[in-house]
Amino acid sequence: MTEIEQVTVSMDGFEVNSYVVHAPEGDVIVDAGAEPEKILGAVRAPVVAVLITHAHADHVGALDAVLRETNAPLYVHPDAAEGTGVGVYEPLDEGQVLDLAGETFRVLHTPGHAVGSVTFVVGRDQIVGDLILPGSVGRTDIDGASWEDLEISLRKVMPLWEDGTRLYAGHGPVLLASEQLENNPYLPPVLP
Ligand SMILES: [Zn+2]
């Protein structure tokens, strides 16, 4: 049974989440913003892949160290690849299904907060990066961001929400999708 472990690290006092997905046949790291030793400390099995939701500095600051330590391949959307500073990577694509360590990671291209942002669907749960934040969404007043794209991306992930779906966001606690539907004023209305 796969378990998604939240690892909150601090980048100069600013908290950002990494995730270590404990899959049946190994671990997968998602995002590596800071404190690589803390991220690696949560690892329990060989790391088969490192995935990046988007390439903002607070999500990739510890990427070099994590890749060096794990020797795992990096998966990132091509639009975000340059921002990682890593030249060799596996390109992620909309709708792609990754089979990693005995678990399935479905890739949704979800730009808006950042170019090349992706959401990983694992079972009924979603690792959303900064697409959705507690009671809010990722900033769209920054370079490369677009509210129009963000809304399209929200409308892509929301129809997949089920009872009990958890959202693993880039900042803040693990979220219940049903609670965000009730309390997050930034989410577009669900279309009939
Ligand atoms: Zn960001």
From TrEMBL:
GO terms for molecular function: hydrolase activity; metal ion binding. Keywords: Hydrolase, Metal-binding, Zinc. SMART domains: Lactamase_B. It comes from the Bacteria. The keyword ATP-binding does not apply. Residues 15-171 form the Metallo-beta-lactamase domain. Gene3D superfamilies: Ribonuclease Z/Hydroxyacylglutathione hydrolase-like. Its cofactor is Zn(2+). InterPro entries: MBL_Glyoxalase_II, Metallo-B-lactamas, RibonucZ/Hydroxyglut_hydro. It holds the Pfam family Lactamase_B. CDD domains: metallo-hydrolase-like_MBL-fold. This is MBL fold metallo-hydrolase. The lineage of its organism: Bacteria, Bacillati, Actinomycetota, Rubrobacteria, Rubrobacterales.
